[in-house]
């Protein structure tokens, strides 16, 4: 058994040392999580195991970082309810996590004593960086740029086909986004098309469906405009995925015509996409909006008066 003197030395040694855990979180899940934590031995308590009492070290665990979408989703942090009574679930619904973390700490402590070390995680705390609201500027730095780059890489081949991005087995995971996602990309060749056509949709809570129709003969000269539009589209759809993550009403049967474009969640996503495009092209926000509605009449199918109403709504914060 680890002595009191050794406990003090271990606590001094680990101090603010950060450990990583990459095991299970939810029973039956095939997805491992990626978290960081600190721990401290707070005492010793006799506990029964297989009909006999043994000395157990009491461990205080402090989780300091949630580095994957699953752990961020399950822990469910918000300002009103810090972790939704997670400690009450720790040894029951989330037993694989409790057991795996318990074993990881016990394995570390066995380096200090030849005898079998028994521990129990007695207290669970959270010391996470202050959560910042997701904004277009934070998303665009990595997520939008990376996704657009992957789409363009496929498009440069000039071939038609269906592709899952980032690849068939992975997801896009970024530390500044509270969710992961994939892109279902469809490339279609149309030799009669003068320019190009792009459409996108959030097919599920973690999938962006993207269709690009293009003429290989004119693809090169259209690349500048395509890249700009892809930045708009990806930022727009990521905003919808974030709305879904927060539980907002995104997936009900959408209205048609101008009512669709005036939905609060659609206005918000349009602003995110257009601001991204304005920043990329270094153009006034108002000009980018006007240009889009001028060049995408076939897409939005709004008359001039309806376009004016939508644009005014986008410009009024």
Question: How would you sum up this structure, described in words?
Answer:
The protein is an alpha/beta fold and 317 residues long. It has 2 domains: 4-126, no CATH class; 136-315, no CATH class. The chain has 11 helices and 8 strands. A 4-stranded mixed beta sheet has the order 1-2-3-4, with helices on both faces. The chain is elongated, with a radius of gyration of 26 Å. It starts with a helix and ends with a helix. The model is unreliable at 78-85 (pLDDT under 50).
Proportion of residues in helical segments: 40-55%
Rg is 26 Å
Question: Could you give the distance between the termini?
Answer: 65 Å
Number of structural domains: 2
* Overall form: elongated
| Strand element count | 8
Low-confidence stretches: 78-85
Content of β-strand: 15-25%
Average predicted local confidence, pLDDT: 81
Order of helices and strands: HEEEHHHEHEEEEHHHHHH
Number of helical elements = 11
Largest sheet: 4 strands, mixed
Biggest sheet strand order reads 1-2-3-4
Query: Which structural class should the secondary elements be placed in?
Result: alpha/beta
